[in-house]
């Protein structure tokens, strides 16, 4: 049995607690990848008959309301809150559902438990407010609920700044090593093209040819010299390759470290957010995912702009135009820029998803705290006929102020959110695109 | 939640109640099949490994009383799957197509210079555990996913939201660190 077989066998006997953590983590991560699709949909709290005209899914899963002859959508004078989810595995209507006694109703946890259900049907679920909710709807205008994502994130500012500083400091450390490696390479004598070096060797031996031609040295001496010449060329080529390989290895090693630092930095921000918003809040993972990919960490460092700036600075430093301090200043500036871009993008996504999700949490918590019942309906049963019942008498719509104003539906109560910076378009994990447009 | 399910399963097994196997299959069936599937890329074989694992669990609990049924089942399933793979490879009965095993095996080529004369399997496990505990959460996840689960690099990268290159780089570094640690402990051939 080979050593790697023994290694693989030994891996099979790893600590059970470590393995259990791994299994749990994996489950959570896979859940996290499923939930965001639901969260994105859940963040769009729409009213059937009011907002659905704005929802133009490019598929036929979400039911469409009937339209009148003139093309406008019939709006029922009812109050209701509907959350759509495009998840596979969300259970059908659960008539036995009761809100948890502790009042901590979170959409995320609802979906989480729903995902654990043993079903593979494609369903959406709707959260429908029953009658008697009007007074609680008024509480939705509570300024507390109108907190912006900036305010919510501000509690992290100091710690995030510390992360950033640590990241920059470590990155600079690695960049210095890269600089040293580069310097060593350039001063090693092998930094030019390989043909330049060979030309130098040729020059060194050119006299031998002349001396032999004029008969100053005999053929044996000439032959020995040519043998040395060929050996020197071989040695040079090998040394050149070795030096270049060594430099490249070192360079990429350091570059790889920098890539990892980016990643660690991004993850530290994610972990920090998770520590604040809770591990169950899968929006964080999604927001992180979007931000991370959006900034394109690998593309950033290897992009021509940063590389060019970096190499230009090296050049300047070698020519005595720039100093080590200038180098650091340059690197710090684009690392700062990177981290700001990352945070900005992260914040925008959090603003949109976490914050809105948080509002959803607050709404449901408010409802639960107030003893309002709501139930889940299977998508197949979500229709005008069975949602519009005598028990539902209001519409809740969370949309932009402009959108709310565009309706002349007095029964509609809107929770105003500033969604203006975003185009309000979603794409779930199955590639289904939703968009909210003005009528 | 899972703990209470595990408690129920363990109790049923100790009572020699076959409903325990149904519960294991319901709760952990996918998990058990997951590892076998990574190794064989064959649903039928994964299903057979599940049955073998259930039998192993039935035969080993009691006397064993694992703290986590999921971990225990995973370990047994993995052992079963690897044994089967080695046996079938030796008999040249299968050609595991897109199985992750050959890649992982190739990746571990430089592990072959560890000395089996000095370090036995138990000691190696002890070192691996100590090493795993010294890793960051993400790195540990990568290491276990690759060398315990035989998960594909692309899949690990996607799940952890990092690039495949990063997964590769991290694995490379971790393997080097592990070998270095063993080397410093005098366990490696020089």
The level 1 CATH classification of the largest domain in chain B is: Mainly Alpha
Tally of alpha and pi helices of chain A? 14
First CA to last CA of chain B: what distance?
A: 50 Å
Query: How would you state the average pLDDT of chain A, rounded?
Result: 50
Largest sheet of chain A: 2 strands, antiparallel
The CATH topology annotation of the largest domain in chain B reads as Rna Polymerase Sigma Factor, Chain: A
Strand order of the largest sheet of chain A: 1-2
Q: CATH architecture of the largest domain in chain B, please?
A: Orthogonal Bundle
CATH homologous superfamily annotation of the largest domain in chain B: RNA polymerase sigma factor, region 2, helix turn helix motif
What pair of chains forms the biggest interface?
A-B, 39 and 47 residues
Categorize the overall geometry of chain B: globular
Radius of gyration of chain A, taken over Cα atoms and rounded to an integer in Å: 33 Å
Question: How many structural domains are formed by the residues of chain B?
Answer: 2
State mean pLDDT of chain B (0 to 100 scale): 79
- Measure the end-to-end span of chain A: 70 Å
Estimate nothing, just give the exact number of structural domains of chain A.
2
Structure classification of chain A: mainly alpha
> Which spans of chain B have pLDDT < 50 for at least 5 consecutive residues?
186-190
- Low-pLDDT sequence parts of chain A: 30-153, 290-304, 351-439
Number of helices of chain B: 9
Radius of gyration of chain B from the CA trace?
18 Å
